[in-house]
Amino acid sequence: MARQTQITIKSPAEQQAMRVAGRLAADVLDMIGPRVKPGISTGELDQICHDYIVGVQKAIPAPLNYKGFPKSICTSVNHVVCHGIPGERQLRTGDIVNIDITVIKEGFHGDTSRMFLVGDTPVQARRLCSICFEAMWLGIRQVAPGRKLGDLGHGIQQYVESSGYSVVREYCGHGIGRVFHEDPQVLHYGEPGTGLAIEPGMTFTVEPMVNAGRRHVRLLRDGWTVVTKDHSLSAQWEHTVLVTADGFEVLTLGATDRSTCS
């Protein structure tokens, strides 16, 4: 039986609530960025973000206890693709780390992640992060009413693979709103002109995971941490996007990007 798709089209009031949640999620990444230095543990980063979300933003860290996830943020270091659990691991010079933040404010979710370079990072790692960042934006720029989700995925896949990297296929972007993960699924590969038609009022994430080696991944025994099978480096960037009448609005821009776009 075909899977039934349940898309939520956000009203103007709901769109505004999504803007608030998205801004808060971005603000957490702005806050934590300067703390990402050699010697700090991923558990310390989690605690700082948790205290900021709960104490300062008066919001809720969505990952905490979500389907049993034990922490308030995800920290994915080097060959960890996604859903890394913060803990005692101390960051070292040369590491790359994705910090994934989702906050709930007034019942709505804002979801975003960034790559951070720890100290003096090898040029290969910097290039991977840069290609992944550009791939995310290439996908976002495909978003407009009447386009298909396959257009978005195809654009990302073509760019990544032509750059010598691979796109993870087991994990994808997702609809978001009152629910953390809702329809549609947003694949980061595909064929142009295929998939769901994009409509105004939809909100979803674009979050490609790009591997320096092969695309294959495996899930560790903790049930959460996903790593590259070949132990190659992996990068991910993520924004929450609102489909507008004539294009898109990115709801999770950081302060630097907001000033550039204003």
Question: How many H/I helical runs?
Answer: 5
Cα-based radius of gyration, to the nearest Å: 17 Å
Mean pLDDT: 96
Please give the CATH architecture: Alpha-Beta Complex
Structural class: alpha+beta
**Low-confidence parts, pLDDT < 50 over ≥5 residues?**
none
CATH class category label: Alpha Beta
The percentage of residues in β strands lies in 15-25%
- Full CATH superfamily name: Creatinase/methionine aminopeptidase superfamily
Span of the ends, CA to CA: 47 Å
What can you tell me about this protein's structure?
The longest helix has 21 residues, at about 10-30. The radius of gyration is 17 Å and the shape is globular. The mean pLDDT is about 95. The N and C termini lie far apart (about 45 Å). It has helices at about 10-30, 40-55, 125-140, 150-160, 255-260; strands at about 60, 75, 80, 95-105, 110-115, 165, 175, 180-185, 205, 210, 215-220, 225-230, 235, 240-245, 250. Helix content is about 30%, strand content about 25%. It has one domain: Alpha-Beta Complex (Creatine Amidinohydrolase).
Summarize the entry for a quick read.
By secondary structure, the chain is an alpha+beta fold. The protein is built from 5 helices and 15 strands. The protein is globular.
Secondary structure elements and pairings:
Blueprint: H1 12-32, H2 42-56, E1 60-61, E2 74-77, E3 80-82, E4 96-105, E5 108-117, H3 123-140, H4 149-162, E6 166-167, E7 173-175, E8 182-186, E9 203-206, E10 209-211, E11 217-219, E12 226-228, E13 234-236, E14 239-243, E15 248-250, H5 255-261
Antiparallel strand pairs: 1-4, 2-4, 3-12, 4-5, 6-10, 7-8, 9-14, 10-13, 11-12, 14-15
